[in-house]
Amino acid sequence: MEVIQFDRSRICLDVIIPGRSGFSPGLAQLLSSRDEAKVSSQKSHLVSYHDEIGHQDIERTLEHIFDLPHKSVVRPPGPIDVGFVRSVLRNQARKFDLGGKDSRKYDDGVLIVDKGAGQTKVVLDDSSICGKFKSIWGPLLVESSASFSSARANTCVWNGKWMYEVTLETSGVQQLGWATLSCPFTDQKGVGDSDDSYAFDGRRVTKWNNDPEQYGQMWAVGDVIGCCINLDAGEISFYRNGNFLGVAFDGIRKVGPRKGYYPAISLSEGERCHLNFGSHPFRYPVDGFNPIEAPPHFCMFAAYLLRCLFRLLEVQNLEKSESAYFEKLRRVKKFAPLRELFRPISEGICAEFFGAAEGSQGCSEYITWGSFITLLTDVFRVREPHDFLCLDQVLELFLQFPGCSSLLQELIVALSCMCKAAPLVLTECPFSGPYPFLALACHILRHKDVMHLWWKSEDFAFSFEGFLTMKIPNKQDLQYLVPSVWWPGSSEDEVSMTLSMTTLSDAIKKIEDKHRELCSLVICFVPPTSPPLLPGSVFRSFVQSSILKVRGGDHRMASSGTFNDTVLVSLYTVILHLLSEGFSMDSSGPASSSRINYGTGVGFLHKGGKRRFPTQLLLRNDAYYNVIPRLGGSLNHLLMFHQIDANEDEVQWDEGCMNDEETRITHTTAQKPCCCSITDVTVGLRFKENAKYIPSTSKGPCKSMHEKSAHIASECSVRSLSNEIEDKPITSAQSEIEYGYQALHHLESMSMTNQFSSEALREEELLDFMLLLYHLGAFYFVSQQSQSISLLEETDRQIREKSCMEQVRRLKEARNSYHEELVDCVRHCVWYDF
């Protein structure tokens, strides 16, 4: 027999870890986690390496689960029950100072300015706001509803190293940084426009301290910007998704207590961001820098309890032969079987967890975004094969406790927000980007109780939209995703580029599969209402509300828009797949009331024979339907040239189709259906002369582009172009090209119910939604391309005709802006085509 001595904090085995990266060279955290307090003494153990040695005593197993010193657990005289487990954990809780106050004092260099309300959370100071912010979700996801809005947080720092994170919901003009109380905020001046005020603007790739200078990288929607201030060294720096952008400012002035630097932001109209001063763990923490808001004391004990639960699950899995990733661990150490003890130990851990959480106010968000998600991802595993059974076991365990409802609702929102900020990483494909969070959410939502909690929460639409969001890479991101670029005649490596594109395509396919799964769960969900609704009503309502956001006055379908255009693309591809592959709803299944089966029969788009379509879908008098030219013109326009029988309920026709198995064409065959044909992304450029649009200020009929030239000439006169540049505040965004539809501000308050809301969702209705989504997305980009081209051409003409150098300079500035918009629009088309 070979006997080895090892330190339990240093054991490292070559196995797979269910963690964030999926694979690891060792299992260093198995017996001692970095996420929990180091409460156990580091004692060496003598353990047999021989496979035939008997199981260790149950006491040794409990010591491992609770991370206790060797031979510190004594078996109780009675059974090991929930009470015994909780007594062990309460003894451990004394080491975590659960009842203590915030240990950071005035001398630590940070102070929450208390204006008499006993404020303990870091938020934006209402009295500092210039302009107007509206809260989208909680107090820290804010959007500017004025032309230019600025605000400071209610906390200042004057020594030490501090940071906060900003997740970009839009990617337009935002100035993020630090400012003192002496920095004035106006409708034209914000963060970075005065002394002792420092900001980074990734839209213009500029740093601001009175005068702008080039700095950093262009940012994109979903980026996480780390704003760091090192008052010991007098430096301010910024990070983009954990990547250091360099020291932005040095030699910043020293200030005294209560006159320190405040986190501060300035946003142009429609810009939106999510601030994290420490209310939940940082996505990309920087070594040595502390959050502005101290984490709650309970979070350390909560992390310890959840790691205890994870170790319990590991020990239970040791008995399962299919748990291959514990094979080497099984050879190193054998534990007493826990078949009869798993229930009291697990329930004791959860009872202590929820009991302590109930007495700790304001800790739910931090724990959910941190240790709770870590537990679930470790159990479920971020890469396939996922451990569905173990995750179900955890969920069923937590659902027994009343406090679980708020925890799970917060979990869904957290997973949704993480999807929005998850970038594709080539080395982690195909399980990269939002996939780990989507896969986890999809399985959790298969439980009827969890789906019901999600549906009845106020954040349902917000989080559903987040799950369907894809983070779009910018120029720097694409360099990492596609390191080698090849074209015919190029000397670059074609194989390398092909490999990169194949890898990315596989990753996107995984994500789209989860989008379909999530939407299918929502389609099949039947809310427990009276009278009962039929499957599809919740999904219908969400799509209609999304249409309102796109069509309403709040939306500018652009890079700085408030509604992420990738949501439209995700909905479009989901519906296209359902209609092309065919599906039926099955009422079986343990988790939801019904489920969708794919590939059943011939898809709706490929059916032949007698076809019919309800005319009511196309002739509705809803304001957000009848102005969209999805039928070769708006409904009002068509009614002028085509007679329609209002009493006719449906139209019928004969349609041919190859629907036998040998010749049938679907998404799974080598030849793709016409709905998935690759389109020429330059079609909008080639046919720009025939493109039709409705100017944002016009209420008349559509004009072709050549008819608009005279109007453009007057609009782009020297006076108008010069004034647009001259009168614009230095910190404001360039005015966006408005959507080419009529303004529909009144739609925000419209009811989402219609004559079909009480019926099951039909394929014809999905087709109508799909066509609607196509025009809301594709038509916009084609129109914007055409308008940008016309503006470029008109500006070039004026540059050729002007002799004044100052006028030419301003015209060239305007031209550069129009050119940038056009290039961005074309890139959007290319990305979505891919």
UniProtKB/TrEMBL annotation:
Organism the protein comes from: Oryza sativa subsp. japonica (Rice)
InterPro entries: B30.2/SPRY (IPR001870), B30.2/SPRY_sf (IPR043136), ConA-like_dom_sf (IPR013320), RKP_N (IPR045737), RNF123/RKP/RSPRY1 (IPR045129), SPRY_dom (IPR003877)
Domain B30.2/SPRY: from-to ranges: 91-282
UniProt cross-references to PROSITE patterns, sorted A to Z: B302_SPRY
Pfam families in the record: RKP_N (PF19322), SPRY (PF00622)
The protein's name in its UniProt record: B30.2/SPRY domain-containing protein
GO MF, any single term: ubiquitin-protein transferase activity
Keyword RNA-binding: no
Keywords from the named record: Metal-binding, Zinc, Zinc-finger
Superkingdom, taxonomy of origin: Eukaryota
